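Appendix C: a fully annotated inverse folding record. The material below is reproduced so that readers can follow the format used throughout the book. The structure is listed first as tokens, followed by the designed sequence.
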């Protein structure tokens, strides 16, 4: 496959998509903030199987960072990102817009998408405005690239559910497809923020995945006291040197609080923690969790 074309303006991006469409080709969009890793590459691979043409976007979106968060420090690694996408050979175009292409009136004065209450729960509770910022930029990227398919990762589960909600609520004609969380061999979910971990923190980080697995096992075994499970997981994480933001059991379909009548298969366990400077998030669907690992945990704990 030829090198992906790199486009910096919304006009060029629109023109490119218009040409593809003129020859009857469909388009998938993979939005990213760069600093690409195996998780992004797997989403680009998924996008390839969903459409004739694939566009990846690289844009560090200021409106989804709160005061004191890592917008300035967020790793910007464009050359490496482009090299990775080239080597992967799954992407036709990379949209790398300047700030003014996305926010022509400035990010501070931007029209914003205001998301419903779920955006203020879970990660939104400690990151006010974050999901409004995510929705605002995803909406703009969809307007520019007008893809048939939008590919997002299950790793950012709340983001996925909220973007699906925005697409449905605003009547945006795109199909949202989600790709699985990529993990290191020890279970740690791959994330750009893992690079903030010291060696010692990195060696402790898989305890987050282990804690989620433990809750999943308990739910599968019929445990129904979600509060107790959440509390036990948070205590365990605190004991392992994490500062838990939350561990919560929610309905996988819409992240509503479960009423106790849902079968465990319809639940998802989500967590956010601080480990040193890194804010790590992860989640496990009860239905989709890997049986082999769960088996392992079960025998370790028995
Ligand atoms: O998941 C991300 O990297 C970002 O939130 C996204 C979807 C690219 C919007 O900036």
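Designed amino acids, in order:
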């Amino acid at each position: 496959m030829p090198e992906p074309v790199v486009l910096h303006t919304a006009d060029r991006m629109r023109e490119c998509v218009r040409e593809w469409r003129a020859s009857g080709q469909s388009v998938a969009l993979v939005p990213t903030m760069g600093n690409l890793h195996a998780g992004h590459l797997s989403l680009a691979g998924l996008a390839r199987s969903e459409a004739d043409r694939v566009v990846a976007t690289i844009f560090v979106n200021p409106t989804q960072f709160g005061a004191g968060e890592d917008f300035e420090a967020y790793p910007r690694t464009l050359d490496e990102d482009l090299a990775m996408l080239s080597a992967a050979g799954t992407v036709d175009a990379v949209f790398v817009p300047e700030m003014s292409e996305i926010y022509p009136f400035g990010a501070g004065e931007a029209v914003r998408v205001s998301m419903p209450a779920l955006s203020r729960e879970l990660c939104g509770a400690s990151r006010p405005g974050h999901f409004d910022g995510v929705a605002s930029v995803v909406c703009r990227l969809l307007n520019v690239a007008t893809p048939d398919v939008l590919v997002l990762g299950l790793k950012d589960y709340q983001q996925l559910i909220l973007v699906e909600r925005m697409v449905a609520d605003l009547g945006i004609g795109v199909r949202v497809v989600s790709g699985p969380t990529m993990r290191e061999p020890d279970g740690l979910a791959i994330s750009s923020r893992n690079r903030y971990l010291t060696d010692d923190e990195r060696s402790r980080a898989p305890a987050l995945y282990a804690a989620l697995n433990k809750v999943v096992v308990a739910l599968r075994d019929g445990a129904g006291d979600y509060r107790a499970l959440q509390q036990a997981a948070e205590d365990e994480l605190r004991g392992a040197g994490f500062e838990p933001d939350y561990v919560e059991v929610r309905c996988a379909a819409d992240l509503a609080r479960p009423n106790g009548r849902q079968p465990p298969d319809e639940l998802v366990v989500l967590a956010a923690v601080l480990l040193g400077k890194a804010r790590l998030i992860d989640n496990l669907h009860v239905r989709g969790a890997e049986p082999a690992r769960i088996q392992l945990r079960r025998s370790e704990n028995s």
